[in-house]
Fold:
Amino acid sequence: MDEQYKTTVDAQAPVIEPGYTFGTVTEKISAIVLTRPASNGWFMGFGVAFMLTMMLLYAIGYLVLKGVGIWGVTIPVGWGFAIVNFVWWIGIGHAGTLISAILLLLRQSWRNSINRFAEAMTLFAVACAGIFPAIHVGRPWLAYWLFPYPSTMGVWPQFRSPLIWDVFAVSTYATISALFWFIGLIPDMATLRDRATHPIARIAYGMLSMGWRGSARHWHRYETAYLLLAGLATPLVLSVHTVVSFDFAVGIVPGWHTTIFPPYFVAGAIYSGFAMVLMLAIPIRKIYGLEDFITELHLQNAAKVMLATGLIVAYGYGIEAFMGWYSGDRYDAFTLWNRLHGPYAIPYWSLLICNIFIPQVLWIRKLRSSPVALFLVSGVILVGMWLERFIIVVVSLHRDFLTSSWGMYYPTRWDWMTYIGTIGMFLAAIFLFVRLLPMISIFEMRTLLPEAEVKGE
Amino acid sequence: MKRERMYGMMAEFDSATALVEAARRTHQAGYKKIDAYSPFPIEGLAEEIGFHHDEVPLVVLIGGIIGGCTGVHRDHVRDDDSVCRHFRGVRHACVERLAHALPSCIQRSTLCAGFKRPFLPDRVFFRSEVRSGGHVRFSAGARAALDFGGAELGCRASARFRCQYWEQRP
Structure:
């Protein structure tokens, strides 16, 4: 099946441009880390991202000092930006796992050049996501109560609450993602160890490569381990966002209490994740001249995945609206009306435009293969997916069953600072990653070369 | 560290096909202590140098099951008695409910599964052997610290041949 796939796609765009050898592939990717000096643009970009990270720390510091009252959360909207951003970031992480695990099991060789930084993106996104529930609990210094540690006080988490399932889902996800990423890096670390000239770099990469020599025994065990991890990570692509959606779906709030949530959340997660992959891949391939490795094929395939998942998301919106009417439940019907005409109508309509209407331009092949167009559409999708979580969290909560308990939610500057701060932290991590680790898997790129094939006798 | 006899031989090949072929013929010629190095995974190469699965996964699985079972073992002691169990130097709180045994259960299964730690000597030290171009000498203290239950650690590293391929026996 792999062969078939290769030949059909080779007709339009190759997975890797011809003319490369093992040496040039290695040289090109490792040079970014080892020999190329950091440009002014890198320093400026990292500087801005770092300052935003500092802003995040400031916002969190002030939050710890003053309490969640500095945020816009209040009754009835007790889950504001923190949960919106948490779900958004966790969703973004999903593309990395999909690319690294599911596409590995399906033997899609085009994943080889984008899996490394997609996995890095997953890790950083999960790190950003993890901040929010921890600081949202009100007393962040007691956030460890979320874990079922052997407490002599007999304080245990409520195992019947989806919120505690979430703790397990996300921490499992973070662990597996980190392991997958690190194991994938080991052979490349060894390459860097052997090529590095600076003593500190040699020691650092040497320790991280854990004695890798590239022996056939190593590869044999390595591939087994990698496959097993992929098998473990595959259900996580579906389960993590399913559990996140349970946070809502298990509640009885109109607009939350639906069975469509798990598949619709998972599709939305992959949708936004691929949008983030493209938003990172397009500038990176341009800046570092990696168009030969991240080819038009990769962009096209990612665009197709976005198109497909976007349609699933659109179906989710459609079913939500349909059920609002079909259920005959007046509160569900009101939720729909409130979304379309209520005080948050502008975010809702923008959400429909960003997530459903604009991405349909990806049907046009010319736009699908244009990096600029893809970059813009990806940005629109990321905004749209953030708005979707805003609609789900805020609009459902602000007007529930009793008109007497209705209210409004307005984010404060601290909400925005925390949110933008995590984007800064994410970007700062990406900037560091690009300079410190091989952002494309070197050994997996080598396997794509024709010389890597073992020809039968 | 003067060596009289030949320590080993290495050969380099241009393509994956040649490498696999050479590995097959070396192995067929009867050489067992061989290894093959490649910058990317080559299908079937490990089999050609005679590498087979060992019993380690099974040992780890059995260890994990034993550890998991003993971790779940419940103790009806009230919290305020605070009687703790000790296992491999780790304190385990007593539990009243099954779910509460989860952390100690995970700890124990990990400890039991890792009890043998059989991969470590080969994994960690064989590389240093190659790098230093000979066998690794361990001081008595280091040997004691690194003793994973495999008594042959030092000898094994030095007895291995540092070679990629032997030439075909004439």
User: Anything to note?
Assistant: The longest helix of chain B spans residues 56-72. The interface with chain A takes residues 15-17, 20-21, 23, 35-46, 48-49, 51, 79, 82, 92-93, 95, 97, 99-100, 102-104, 123-128, 130 of chain B (CB under 8 Å). The two ends of chain B are 30 Å apart (CA to CA).
